[in-house]
Amino acid sequence: MTAINSLALIALKCAPNVFDLSSDMTHASIRDQVVRARLLARDLAQLPKPPQSVLVVGAGFAGVSVAMALAAQKIKVLVVEVNRQPFQLQSKVSDRYVAPFMYEWPSHNADDQSYPPAGAPAWSDDSILAGLWDAPAIATLKQAGRDRGAWRKRWKRLHGVRSHGPYPAEPPHWDEWFVRELRGQVPLPAKELARRARARLLEHLAAIPPTSAQLKILTRVDADAIKRFVGAFAKQMGSWYQSMSSPPIPGSYRPWQHLRVATGVDWLTSQPEHNVPCDVDAVILGGGAGPERVELDAYPFKFDAVGPAAGLSFWDNDGWLGASADDHVGVFGAGDGALQDALRALTGHKHPLMTIHAIRRDPRARAALTAVEPELAAIDRQNWLAASWTQVSEEKGKPRFHRGVLDEVLDQRCRAIACRLSEQPGINQAVADILLAGTGVVYHVFQENYFTKSYLLNRFLLHLIDVCQPPGGRLAGKIRYSSMPDMAEIRGYARSVVSARQGYQRADYRIWLKRRYSLSYFSVPMHRVAVRYGRLHPDSQPGHQLLGLSSEKIAERTCLGGVPYPHVAEPMP
Ligand SMILES: Cc1cc2nc3c(=O)[nH]c(=O)nc-3n(C[C@H](O)[C@H](O)[C@H](O)COP(=O)(O)OP(=O)(O)OC[C@H]3O[C@@H](n4cnc5c(N)ncnc54)[C@H](O)[C@@H]3O)c2cc1C
To answer: Locate the FAD dependent oxidoreductase domain: which residues (predicted)?
Structure first.
């Protein structure tokens, strides 16, 4: 079989032997990052002269995955991380839930909460994710435990166990069966996923003989020291390449390939280390997307302001799942994070997969949904193609398809399906049933007039909720979704001290909005806000900071990015 070299497709090559798995990534879930990282490792190991020693910057899912896969190919790897432990980003949040295939909806395995998927015996996977979803989370067990009686009845019915005998020859043990059945019921809280990933990584590191020292993870490393080394390495590697037309032979190290980390902590042994020596053939950046922008622009006339209108980062505990449905909630942004938050505020569900399941519980709604799923799947395929192919809007005066145009077209199609579906019997009631009972409103405010980069499930659910509500009103007794697109100006401030007493960040916010083509602002009072504007600034991404990368040049740095996406075909029936 011919191995296709996919280096250029999966990682941004920023300099000779310097790859960036993280910068400018949109539409990349944890699982996507793990897959990309493993493909990069595979391709590096298959080079005619593979690197012998690699520095990986960042111990998130991408960094750890590429490191494990390279070490498995007998390539020496040093991972340097600024935080105190790997997977730090997901380690704080217990009310965000992660499922391995959630973004594949409506494909048949979107529901599978096991990795590798339960029904795919031929799929061998030794990645950091393998087996992490296998046991239900404690929270899931506790929740199901409250309903233990019903589960026990099901166990008895399924296995012919009667209360007063006779028992079947070998009934499966009740406790084991209970835990096994719950596997795959609910996605894992992000914090639990990170904890399990760390446990798996520790096992992996402990199994490496100390003499081979194939993979080492240093935490609490000084960010400036990393930056200095990576910058110098990329620059020197570039000049070497220019003069010699090839990189140095792996293993024959120049002085600028000697890394000395001033201080760090060996994560396996918890021992501090000083002046760790390392000779490096290649550098892989897995520093993530950098800090998020979570604050609205300030309103100029804020006489009664005590602070900004600011929410929390996506991977922080916001307490929204238990929050009041009588609140006025503001969700800002048209991307996936915003859509997820709007859905959480409307349904109180841990995860959009649970929302779609709840709708499907009604037999008429299930039949209607099943009928439109092939059309939705076709839209999803278009969406994925658009995500990877369309970066360029205009080149040398020739207008080309812009990503936004495609997003808009796909979004309109998705909404049209939701509209058709809302006319089917049973759908309106099923949607009413998933909404929280309350007098609250979820204001979803964004600049565009369509949802931008979002996965299909979230996009579809919000459109469905929107079209099922009476125009300008709410479904009886239920929290209301109020979509506010086309806002040219979105500003705000807090008028009272932010309080976390109710378990979530709550304040008296005053939000000022100006519609496109309008001259005046109008204001909306809100109690809770989530600002999902993506990264703080392109230059705040670790990859940009380490190497001074520019987003402007992204089309030149990727293969597919430079190829315009020609047409949007009609979705297949
Ligand atoms: C709003 C939003 C919603 C999302 N929702 C989901 C979701 O529901 N499900 C899902 O699967 N994914 C989701 N994602 C994507 C997910 O967060 C990423 O795919 C994943 O975290 C990327 O992993 P990573 O290893 O590339 O980066 P990160 O997880 O960010 O890890 C980067 C690591 O590098 C370290 N680091 C940074 N700079 C340096 C430096 N200079 N030197 C050394 N170390 C450094 C950091 O401390 C961190 O440990 C979402 C992302 C966003 C922004």
So the answer is: 54-180
